Amino acid sequence: MSMQDIAFSAKQLSRTHHSGVLGTHSTSMPGYPFGSVVPFYLTPAGDAIIYISDIALHTRNIKANDKVSLTIFDAAEDDSQANGRVTIMGNAELANKDDVKAQYLRLFPQAKGYEKTHDFNFYVIRAERVRFIGGFGKIHWIDKAYWQVEEQEWHGSPEGMITHMNEDHVDAMQLILQHKIGVNIEHPIMHSAFPEGMHCGSEEATWFIPFESICETSTDVRKALVKLTNDARTALNIPKAS
After folding, report:
1. Does residue 221 fall inside a structural domain?
2. Mean pLDDT by groups of 10 residues along the chain of 242 residues
3. Closest by Cα among 74, 65, 56 to 19
4. Element housing 14 (H / E)
5. Domain final position from 151, 184, 213
6. What range defines the domain where residue 37 resides?
7. ∠ at Cα 49 (44, 50), nearest 5°?
């Protein structure tokens, strides 16, 4: 298994889950780590985006020392030692950009209300190194040269393809969700498009649907979505549209 394949698997695991344990350096207990649970998403490049309040302890810690970690794992599984997990180590910095906010709110619409409470800001954790454990004996360090994906034009503006799917291909998303997740959503919504897959679901819930291989261009994404649709039709024994 190549390092590119290992990084791809770790990315897909990371995109499947929507919260992780943020590790910061404690200011109230110097020398000790402080852990807190935060929602996050990964940018197309592979950096983590979090949305945190200025009054939160972890934010005060970040302002004093920007070196952090984010650990992602499946809390629903019984045997945590046998299941995959990812730890991203990097530096946190402010990231109050319109595209960051737009993607975050697509995945976490409930966060719209946070703007009316305490001062919340977006931070990006720029990955320096990643630890990936895919199960017993599958332990890897991933340097950022393999973790980072080269920026493409469509990364910063996926709204066009998301709108197109939501307006013209609801039926395809219904089939994909039935095939991959086993749920039947009457009016599914595409929430994201990333090089490793997409988030799709409803206003109340979303699931990550992985692609078979990394998509470098918007054309690659379109081909991956077509394949997912055709695979779903075959699996569900539904004739292809003429």
Report:
1. yes
2. 92 95 97 97 96 96 98 77 88 95 93 81 97 86 93 88 94 96 95 96 93 94 96 90 61
3. 74
4. helix 3-16
5. 151
6. 3-151
7. 160
